[in-house]
Structures are given as C-alpha cells and as structure tokens.
Design goal:
The structure holds 2 protein chains of 2 kinds. Chain A is an alpha+beta fold. Chain A folds into 3 domains: about 220 residues, Multidrug efflux transporter AcrB transmembrane fold, CATH 1.20.1640.10; about 100 residues; about 140 residues, Gyrase A, domain 2, CATH 3.30.1360.200. Chain A has 16 helices and 19 strands. The longest helix of chain A is centred in the C-terminal third of the chain and has 35 residues. Chain A is elongated, with a radius of gyration of 34 Å. By secondary structure, chain B is α+β, with helices and mostly antiparallel strands. The longest helix of chain B is centred in the C-terminal third of the chain and has 33 residues. Classes of the chains: A alpha+beta, B alpha+beta. Chains A and B meet through α9, β18, α12, α14 and α15 of A and α4, β5, α5, α7 and α8 of B. β18 of chain A pairs antiparallel with β5 of chain B.
Chain lengths: ~550, ~325
C-alpha cells in the first residue's frame, strides 16, 4: 500500500496554500491595483493578504520602450581635440628643435602628430609627457584623482601617436555612461510618469522604459538634446560663415536666423554646469523665456564680465547654436538672468527642464523605439485571458475524456500549476508580457505531458497484469527518466531564450521555464498524492486509466 | 469514457514499412524550403530589417490607396501597408472589436522623432480620427544585432542539445535528434518563406520553443528505444525502434493534441500580435511530432547502434 508520510502531505499543502495566497492578488487585479495606488483609501482588499501583483510588461499596459546609445567616442574625440590645443601651444614654443608640427587624422580615437624634425622626435615626446602629467584635462572631473601614464605615446619615424590606455578608456566610458544615466533619469522624472525603468545595457547603451506614456515624442524631445549651455564672448557677427578664425575662436550659427553667424571665443565665460536653478518665465514683453540662477563663483564671474563689457553683445549658446545674443545693458551682479529666444511656452518649459537636469556628457542616439498604446495593451490582456481560459478548458476536457478519474487528478494538478506559475511570477517580480501569456498557455498544453507519460506507463503495466499498486509504482519509476529528459531539453531552450532574448521574448522564456519546473512538481508530487489517497481510501479492485 | 482506449490498439503499426518514401519526402521538403528561402527570402519584420512600423486604427474605413499615395510621395523609402487579420473576429474579446480598420504601415526609414512626427502628421491629414495603437522603430545597428543574436541562439540551442543527448545517450542518438531539429527549423523557415508571414523576433522565440518541443518528443521515443534495447538484446534494431515508437505513440499523440488545443485557442483568440508566433508553434508541433518518429528514429536506424549497453567501460548513457 502507498505510504503517506505526514511530511509529504504537509509539504505539498504548504506549497499549494502559499502559492494560492501569493497568486490571489492577481485574480483581483484592478482592486489590488487601486489599493496600491491610493494607500490611504479604504479598500475591499484585506490588509492581511499579500498585495504583490505580477508586473505587466509594456506590451500589456502600454508605454514607451527606448534603447539609447551614448556616443562615448565623441567624448574621447573631444578630449583629443583639447589635448591637441594644449600640445600645440606647448610644442610651438620649441619649434627650433622640433620643426613644424601638424595633426593628421582627426577622426578616430587617437591623436597623430607629424613632426618636422624626425631626429628630435624623442624630445617632442618628452614635452608631451610633461603635459601628460600636468595637464588639467586629465585631472579634471573625468578621472577624479590625478593619474599618471593615462596616455600611450608611441612614435614611428616622424609620427607620434597618442592613444588612451584601455583602462583609461573604460573608466572614461563608464563615467560618461553613469553621468548620462543620472541625467536621463532626472529628465524622465520630469515627465511625471510613474515607475520608469532606466538601466545600463552592455557597454554604451541605456534602456529606458516608461509605462503609461502614450507617445514617445515628448520623451525624445527631452532626451534627444544634450542641452549644453554656454555663455560666450562675441567677437563679431556677420551674414556669412567665412570668418578669419583664430584657433581659440569658433563660428556658430543662429537659431533664429539662418543667415546670421557669430564668431565666438571658444572658452565660455560661464556654462550650464554652474546653473543652480532654471524656471520657465516671461520676458518684459510677455514672451516665454527661461530664468536662471548661477552658483556664487559663476555669479561673480558673470558679474565681472558684464561690468567690463557693457554695450557689447554676448551669446547664449545651446548645443552649438546661438539661441540669442543680447547686448549687455548694465552690470548684472546677482547671478541671475533670463534667456529669451523664439520660444513657445512648451519650449521654454522643456528648456527649463533640460537646464535643471544638466547637460548630457555626450550625444545620444535612439537605436530602438517602441510605443504601445494603452488600447492595444488592454486588448492583448483580454485576448490572452480568453485564450488561456478556452485553451485551459479544452485541455481539461480532453484530459478528462481520455483518462477519466486520473484525468481529473491531472486537471486539478494543472490548475494548481497555473496558480504556482502566477505565484512565482509575483514573488520573483518577473514581468508578464504577451509572449509570456503565450508561454503560460503553451505550458497548459505541455504541462500534462509528465502526467501523460506516467499514465501511459501505468496503462502498460496494467496490461502486463501487475497488481494495481505495482502498476502505479512502476509506472512512476519508469516514466521518471523520460520526464527528466523531456523537461531538461525544453528547459535548455528556455534558458537560451532568456539569455539571447530581449524584452517581451525574455518574458516568454521566464513563464516557459517556470512552467516546466512547476509542471514537473505538480505531476510528480501532487497527482501522485491524489492517486495515493485514492488508493488508500477507495481501495479500487480494478484500475481504469 | 469517450476517448478512452482510442489509442489502445493492440496491433503494432509498421512505421518503417513506408519510411523510405517519407525520407524522400522529408529530404524533398528540406530542399524545397532551402530553394524557396534563397529565391523568395523571408518577409522580415522591422526587428530584422530596420525601419518604422505604425499600427493604426480608425472608426471609418481607411482607404489604403490614399494612404499609400500620401506616404510614398514623402521620401520615406519603401512603404508597405497591410490590414490586420483576425480569423475569428467575432469571438475575440478585444475592445478593438473590428479589425476591419486596423492597419499596419511599415516605413523603411527610422531617424528618430522626425519620421514619427512626419508620418503622424501625414496620416492625420488623411484620416482625421486615426489612433496610433503601436509604433516601433528599429535602427539598422540594432536590427543586424538582433539577426546575429537570433541565429546564435538557434545555433547554440542545437549544439547544447547535441551535447546533452550525447551525454545521456550515444552519439547516434544525438545525431538523429539534431538532424530532426534541423529538419524542423528548415521546414519552418520554408513555410514562412512561402506564406510570406512576417519573420520577426517572436518567430525566433517560436523556433527555439519548437526545438525544445520536438526534442522533448524525440527524447521520449529515444528513452524507450534505450530501454527496449536493454530488454530485447537479440531483437533486430528495426523491430526495437518500431516497438518503441508504438509504445510511446499514445503519449506522443496525447501531448501533441493537448499542446495543439492550447495553441489553437491562442491562434484564434490570442490577438493579432502573437498570431505569427502561434502559427509557427502549431506548425512546429506538427512537424516536430512527425520528425521525432520519421526523421530521428530513421537516422538511428541508418546509423545503427551498438548493443552492448551493460558492458563495463561504456561510460555513455548516464542513467538518472
């Protein structure tokens, strides 16, 4: 006769009870959701029950999914540009020894310098190395502490090649990404959406998921701009861009007039990093503008600059475009001011947000953008629910018709199986996607497999005229090897999907994988328990499977 | 019960009596699939091709030709418009009750917000009450990665299976199983090639699940083959294989039917978004069930298996 240890029944009961408990909030989704959103209001959902819901993926609740790439290479290129200015001004003084110098190849992640007198190239390298350890560029905010030997300097004939060490490049990349993440987070938070997810992916990528957002346009407007703000001295203004430019000067176009060009000093008087606040406001003519405040040191700089340059224009530059160039009318001592331009109210609001959150250290490229409207998500949930219900009923009926009482045992196990999957999804905080629902429906179909394997074996044993008890015992023993093999192979597919898949597909692999584990559990323990209880209490003479 | 004993036929079916014919059919189908694939290619979705997809709906009927004309004159690259399909529309519980007016518009270009704003404006001009249900935009950088990852995933799955079966059984079994998988994958690609269903990320997921399912089926047969090889040492391999397939036949059919029941429910009621995925799965279950019997077992028969399972020194065939 089957042995029913107290431990076995206790264990199964505990698992079933707790999974029911943890899965229960999902069957009253809207009630629990309302309670979670308004914790102060009284709710019909009792406090003593768990209230963790399965997280719905963007494809089910609607929202924006965005994969961004931070162009870290631009930062590295920019660093080389700065380094080149420094090297140039220091080597020019030693022209007698080195000869003329020229920068070749301005594109890549290296700095190549051609030296006139190749016999003195070692001397030139010594000069550069001096810079390497002293230049402010590499001891500034990028690296935190001063590091020596962060540049690799090599020479071939008359060519000096300077590259970053791999480690330095990685550190730099990491810093750029981390800073970008922080600024993206601040900007997304400004949209006022709830629970945005912002995470780093791979080396240079950032994944942004904003549930509930109906359109990506606002988000792109906020993230698409680096929002680098500078205040520069204007050297001259002209209607063509053909200025005679010195190396510390730069030509910038105008936002308002495409026929207007400004020659500016490269080094800004003050920049956006020194802003302490920015708010949308209106200028004296009632047009939208953005008011701002500087921190004390920038306020001092700005005050001194305006005092010395009354009457001359000065440029407010945003992302390499002059948005306005007002003439300084008086000394501005307080460190605050307003930016005017051709703004609409929306634009001034957005600019204020961008300035408050700070500039992105590098440009961002949108690689992938998926927007799912809330209607489609709701539709998918309904369709998924219906498919699960109908599919489940069909399978239950088929099992009952095929195996009778044993089919009903398997059916109860199957229903517990679904509850187990829901409970595990809730506990693990996994995300349920539409393919995830498909995974559950598929699990419904495949979960009976383990039971079928056992039942078929039991049938075979009965045919061999074994005793009823032995048929069941041997049936389970012999089916085990097949059950293990069959489920391990499906599990392999699920695991590979999990690691290679992205977004919704990952959701599918999670439910498929969990479904495999729970289906083996329910078939081997729960169905078995039912059969043993049946044997124990009904002591059937003939077994009809 | 109604179905009880449906599969309890006492007579053995001689599976290998017509297996040569089926082998040729299988080989032919593989060949045709490869030819179809190389001539027609696949109808890649924007996941793999890059581009922007708009799923739109309107309460009024959308004139496809009007929309096409407006969009194709707007420098957006290749434009394609198709209607959403729902074979059992009236049964669908969706709130978007009629799929009559749901259209999928694909545009070749991606460049961020510009394309989206541009197309939105154009469409709003044409169909004033248009609703944007879904907009997806995948750049070429990501789409090529997705293709690479997808192929890697399928390859990786096949190789891991090869290794697993090799460890659990013998190399002949592993080859048989893997050949059956390749057969299933190629035939699925062939079907997608000829039916012009969209081939996207979810189809890769379906392919991997098919691999898992087909293997599941094959392994159950193989498991029985191994057991019967031990029990009937002198029986010719062909007889052992046939017996094993007959032994497991009712299980094979039962599981296929329950899985197909669930899948058909998904296909008809699960909505347009996953219909391609479900179609691939239904096809995969059918082909996978077939291949575990007529491809995997047949290969095993051709390769022949050594019979001295119980001898010492045979470290293959780890038992659990």
């Amino acid at each position: 006769m089957p042995q029913l240890s107290f431990f076995r029944i206790f264990f199964i009961a505990i698992v079933c009870f707790s999974s029911l408990l943890f899965a229960s909030p999902n069957f009253f989704y809207s009630t629990v959701d309302r309670k979670l959103n308004n914790p102060t209001q009284t709710s019909s959902w009792p406090d003593f029950l768990p209230s963790t819901l399965v997280k719905l993926g963007l494809d089910l609740r609607g929202g924006v999914y965005m994969l961004l790439e931070v162009k870290t290479d631009d930062v590295i290129r920019e660093k080389f540009d700065f380094l080149w200015t420094d090297i140039r001004s220091s080597l020019v003084k030693k022209r007698k020894e080195i000869g003329s110098i020229r920068r070749i190849d301005t594109s890549g992640d290296q700095l190549k310098i051609e030296v006139g007198n190749s016999e003195n190239i070692d001397f030139a390298i010594k000069e550069i190395e001096k810079l390497n350890s002293s230049t402010e560029l590499f001891s500034s905010k990028w690296s935190g502490s001063v590091q020596r030997d962060i540049l690799n300097i090599s020479s071939l004939e008359n060519m000096i090649t300077i590259t970053f060490s791999d480690e330095q490049k990685r550190t730099l990349e990491k810093q750029v990404i981390e800073q970008s993440l922080e600024i993206i987070r601040r900007r997304v938070d400004e949209t006022g959406t709830r629970e945005p997810t912002i995470q780093r992916q791979g080396r240079k990528r950032v994944l942004v998921q904003v549930p509930g957002l109906g359109s990506s346009e606002e988000l792109i407007a906020l993230l698409g701009k680096t929002a680098k703000l500078t205040f520069n001295e204007v050297v001259s203004i002209d209607s063509s861009s053909n200025f005679p430019t010195k190396f510390d000067e730069i030509v910038v176009g105008s936002e308002q007039n495409s026929d207007l060009f400004y020659l500016l000093k490269k080094r800004p008087v003050v920049s956006g990093e020194n802003l302490t606040n920015a708010q949308p406001s209106f200028d004296e003519n009632g047009l939208p503008a953005v008011s701002f405040n500087f921190n004390p040191s920038a306020a001092l700089k700005f005050g001194n600059y305006t005092k010395d340059n009354i009457g001359s224009p000065f440029a407010i530059v945003l992302d390499d475009v002059v948005i306005s160039a007002p003439t300084i009318r008086s000394h501005i001592p307080g460190g605050s001011g307003i930016i005017t331009g051709n703004f609409s109210v929306d634009e001034s609001n957005r600019l204020a947000i961008l300035l408050r959150s700070g500039a992105l250290p590098a440009e961002i490229e949108v690689l992938e953008l998926r927007t799912i409207g809330p209607e489609l998500g709701r539709d998918s949930i309904n369709a998924g629910k219906l498919a699960a219900l109908v599919g489940g009923l069909l399978v239950l009926t088929f099992m009952w018709l095929s195996y009778g009482l044993f089919g009903i045992f398997a059916n109860v196990a199957l229903m517990l199986n679904i509850i187990l999957v829901m409970a595990l999804l809730s506990i693990l905080g996994a995300t349920l996607t539409l393919p995830g629902i498909a995974g559950i429906v598929l699990t419904i179909g495949m979960a009976v497999d383990a039971n079928v394997l056992v039942f078929e074996r039991i049938k075979e044993e009965i045919k061999k005229n074994s005793t009823i008890y032995n048929s069941i015992k041997i049936g389970y023993e012999k089916a085990l090897s097949s059950i293990v093999d069959a489920n391990v192979t499906t599990m392999i597919a699920a695991i590979i999907l999990f690691f290679f898949g992205s977004g919704p597909i990952k959701g599918f692999s999670v439910t498929l994988g969990l479904g495999i584990i729970t289906s083996v559990f329910t078939a081997l323990l729960i169905t078995r328990l039912f059969i043993d209880l049946y044997m124990l209490f009904y002591k059937p003479k003939v077994l009809r499977v | 019960m109604l179905l009880r004993g449906l599969f309890n036929q006492s007579k053995e079916i001689q599976f290998f009596s017509f297996s040569n014919l089926l082998s040729y059919i299988s080989l032919g189908a593989i060949l045709v699939s490869i030819i179809l694939f190389s001539i027609l290619g696949l109808n890649y979705g924007i996941d793999f091709r890059g581009g922007t997809m708009f799923m739109v709906s309107s309460s009024e009927k959308i004139k496809v030709s009007d929309v096409r004309n407006t969009l194709s004159g707007s420098n957006l690259g290749d434009v394609s418009i198709s209607q959403a399909t729902n074979p059992l529309e009236t049964l669908s519980a969706g709130t978007l009750t009629s799929t009559d007016n749901i259209f999928i518009i694909k545009v070749e270009k991606t460049e961020g917000q510009n394309i989206e704003t541009k197309v939105k404006a154009l469409l709003l001009n044409n169909v004033p009450d248009i609703k944007f249900l879904q907009i997806e935009s995948v750049g070429s950088k990501v789409s090529s990665e997705l293709i690479r990852n997808g192929m890697l995933a399928v390859l990786f799955a096949v190789v891991s299976v090869l290794v697993y079966i090799w460890l659990r059984f013998e190399w002949q079994f592993a080859l048989g199983a893997v050949f059956a998988l390749i057969h299933d994958v190629i035939l699925t690609i062939g079907v997608f090639s000829i039916l012009r269903y969209e081939f996207n990320l979810s189809i890769i997921a379906a392919l991997l699940t098919i691999i898992g399912y087909s293997l599941n089926d094959t392994v159950v047969v193989f498991d029985r083959v191994r057991e019967n090889l031990r029990n009937f040492k002198s029986l010719p391999l062909l007889k052992v294989l046939n017996m094993s397939i007959n032994n497991t036949l009712s299980r094979t059919i039962m599981t296929s039917v329950t899985t197909l029941l669930a899948l058909f429910a998904l296909y008809f009621l699960g909505g347009d978004v996953i219909r391609g995925f479900t179609f691939a799965m239904i096809w995969g279950v059918l082909v996978g069930t077939y291949s575990s019997i007529f491809v995997a077992a047949k290969i095993l028969l051709i390769l022949d298996v050594k019979r001295n399972w119980d001898e010492k020194g045979s470290n293959a065939g780890t038992q659990f």
